[in-house]
Write the structure tokens for this entry.
Amino acid sequence: MTSELVNGLFVNRRSALAALAATGVGLMAVGKQVQAAAGKPLDFNDPRDNLYAFGKIWGSYDEPVLSGFHGLMYARIGAKRAMPLFGYTGTGVMQSKIDSDGNCWIRGKETGYFTDLATGDILDTWKNPFTGETVKVFNFYNPNMGGKLTAEMPRFAMGAAKDDATLMNDGTQRDMAGKVPFVLPFETYGDDLMLAWDYAHEYTNPVNAERWPKACTGPRISPSEHFTFSMSLSEMQDRSAPSSRFIAGFSRVSQWWPWMQMGGHEFAESGVLFGRMFSHKGLKGPGDIPPKVLAYIEKNAPDYLQVPDHWPQVMPRGTWEAYAAEVPPENPAAGAAVGAAALARNDAAA
């Protein structure tokens, strides 16, 4: 991902962590905004309290916090036994704030890497067992995560502008029509606070067959991600604590990644990728990040240990969108034709 990857740089662990801490300088006031209601218990039926909890889970109302995930991805074709393909791991660095209207703002960056099953090393190339070809791996960098969350549950428009937007956590919403309040399905068992969280999308594939015939698996894609968070209720209720430590199960289901070059294969549209991962946030220092991943980021992309220097408001950016934006078309002629058509439409509109 050459547009975002910082090449040729090396910083040691101490300097990387110092860079992370530096982003929190002058931001102590952010945490004070959420301490005004100290002593008031959270009401998980109140959208504003849910927004506060959301920001405390994903990020911190003080300094930015690191998180990590790691696990395996499997392939499933028809009734055949699921086959492990590669590891899937990555990081997030996040920060939150509550504004004067009670809205929650989040900013951060994330990475996603594919690793060798035997060694855990981050892959640059991978031999596809279905095609026999060795392909270049497209590791994922998202430089601008974030936006403003309000008392209404957000809908995420992925892919083409005309595609239907996805309602966050739609599986647990009882009333899908109209506006949905920002109320999450928290469950409590003693001091165990649990939350199930889902994103299920379906939209036009940005990696289309005309421009990327080998990377395209069909005209539509339907990636989904599913989390099961476990936290401490008392820590969440403590408004003097700027962040909530969590351990989560993280699973992902999708079509083949575009970099696998499965386009044209007999299982291009019928194959399923499934990933099961651990995710965690809140250990002291860099302990949330697998050591090989941390070393790789420190050497190659140290900026991804820091939050953005502003509070972006962007729609989620998936791997397919990043791939289409950064990988040159396999069929340049089709790309030129698409560009010419776009120019013609613009001229006609003018």
